[in-house]
Amino acid sequence: MKYTVSVIKADVGGFPGHSSMHPALMEIARKELGKQKGKLIIDFRVMHCGDDLELIMTHKKGVDNRFIHKMAWDTFVKCTEEAKKLKLYGAGQDLLKDTFSGNVKGMGPGVAEMDIDERKSEPVMVFMADKTEPGAWNYALYKMFADPFSTAGLVIDPAMHDGFTFEVHDLFEHKKVMLKCPEEIYDLLALIGQPARYVIKHIFRNSDKMVAASTSTQRLSLIAGRYVGKDDPVMMVRAQSGLPAVGEVLEPFSFPYLVAGWMRGSHHGPFMPVGFDQATPSRFDGPPRVICAGFQLSDGRLEGPADMFKDVSFDESRKKANKIADYMRRHGPFEPHRLSAAEMEYTTLPDVLKKLDKRFRKI
Ligand code: F6R
Ligand code: MG
Ligand code: MG
Questions:
Q1: Nearest bound ligand to the CA of residue 260
Q2: What is the rounded CA–CA span in Å between residue 258 and residue 275?
Q3: What is the pLDDT, as a whole number, of residue 318?
Q4: Whole-angstrom Cα distance, residue 88 to residue 49?
Q5: What percentage of the chain has pLDDT greater than the value 90?
Q6: What is the pTM of this model?
Q7: pLDDT tens digits, residue range 98-108?
Q8: Rounded distance between C-alpha atoms, residue 308 and residue 295, angstroms
Q9: What 3-state class would DSSP assign to 294?
Q10: Are 73 and 18 contacting, i.e. CB atoms less than 8 angstroms apart?
């Protein structure tokens, strides 16, 4: 049977500051989605990563469905009303437009969706991040689907041996390119090594074109033309039986690689995998976090979530992330802790620099 999994997220107000989520907002979201359970949607879960409200929904309407997107939008609007009442921080921050126009894409919320022909058993891992940008998934997806030193199945499992095709989006030029791996891994890396611009949107298995991964790619600053908080992306990955095993999907996060985001969306910092109860960026508004909710789909219903990064085997990654956080913080306002000038364009730094313009003299 064909089902759609939709993960739609927005920051509609933080508690306190940009650190976490007020329980009242999650309650409202659960109530709103609950009204549609058994009607528009089959099942749902409401979660949060830091100050981002995450709606995980299953249905039979296909991706980009206006009714599903409208339901998510209306839920964010309801939560924003409550956030304003409670004077939560940045209430309605990610709702960049006033009126809904058929699809939440380009309106602020992040979306990752996948039409799934449900297999005999269908494990789906939903990753949610805070204090970083969509390109943060590039490194992990490359490791999962193209690096045999990370995913053993690429070598051992005949069902994966033909590799995967990566759909890469150029977020600046609004173009996309399909790259077939392993043949084109050098071309792939040439692009995705610049994660601020090139982002992996989907991954397909070469042997049968089955979709294996989907991410959210919206960049708020590119929509709004100014800094409005980081995008805090989501990602969905199917696992097992000719796809990376659950453990191979998680393995890339045993290394807390550097991502852009953190304080004021302006700093590089380690991407720290944590359990659900630690998805509360605090030090210097971070460091950037990632949680993973593990599900088994069962006739479109969501069995789960299992808290995948809670496990002790990720303790070392967290420890290393804290060490890297110390090291990076010692650089203060210096690059490469602070993002490069091109990426700082969307922050408030250019206003500061403008003031100095008049004082410069020719040399
Ligand atoms: C990062 C983020 C925070 C804020 C910071 C300053 O994505 O949202 O780090 O940028 O807390 O916020 P303001 O300027 O609202 O005081
Ligand atoms: Mg926020
Ligand atoms: Mg956030």
A1: 1
A2: 19
A3: 98
A4: 16
A5: 91
A6: 0.98
A7: 888 889 988 99
A8: 10
A9: strand
A10: no
List, for residues 236-279, the tens digit of each pLDDT value: 999 999 999 999 999 999 999 999 999 999 999 999 999 999 99
Contact (Cβ atoms closer than 8 angstroms) between residue 261 and residue 267: yes
Q: What is the rounded distance in angstroms from the CA atom of residue 250 to the CA atom of residue 21?
A: 25
Q: Which residue has its alpha carbon closest to ligand 1 atom 6?
A: 264
Distance CA 343, CA 144 (A): 27
Q: How far is the CA of 265 from the centre of ligand 1 (A)?
A: 7
Structure tokens at 57: 């929904």
C-alpha of residue 256 to centroid of ligand 3, in Å: 19
Q: CA separation (Å) from 48 to 172, 250, 290? A: 29, 19, 11
From residue 168, give the alpha-carbon distance in Å to each of 34, 178, 193, 299: 35, 6, 12, 31
Specify the length of the chain in residues.
Answer: 363
Q: Is the peptide bond before 109 cis (omega within 30 degrees of 0)?
A: no
204, 164 contact by CB (below 8 A): yes
**Pocket mutation for ligand 1, best pick of 18, 131, 268 (most atoms within 8 Å of C-beta):** 18
Answer for the pair 250, 309: CB distance below 8 angstroms, yes or no.
yes
Asked whether the beta carbons of 293 and 128 are under 8 A apart, the reply is yes
Q: Please name which of 223, 252, 222, 258 lies closest in space to residue 235, comparing C-alpha atoms.
A: 252
289 lines ligand 1 (CB under 6 A): no
Work out the number of other CB atoms within 10 angstroms of the CB of residue 31: 12
Sign, CA dihedral 16-17-23-28, equals: positive
Q: What DSSP string describes 184-200?
A: THHHHHHHHTSTTTEEE
Q: Is 131 in the pocket of ligand 1 (CB under 6 A)?
A: yes
Task: Read off the tokens for 179.
Answer: 């790259």
Half-sphere exposure in the Cβ direction for 252 (13 Å, CA): 23
Q: Tell me if residue 257 is catalytic.
A: no
Provide the 10 A C-beta neighbour count for residue 173.
8
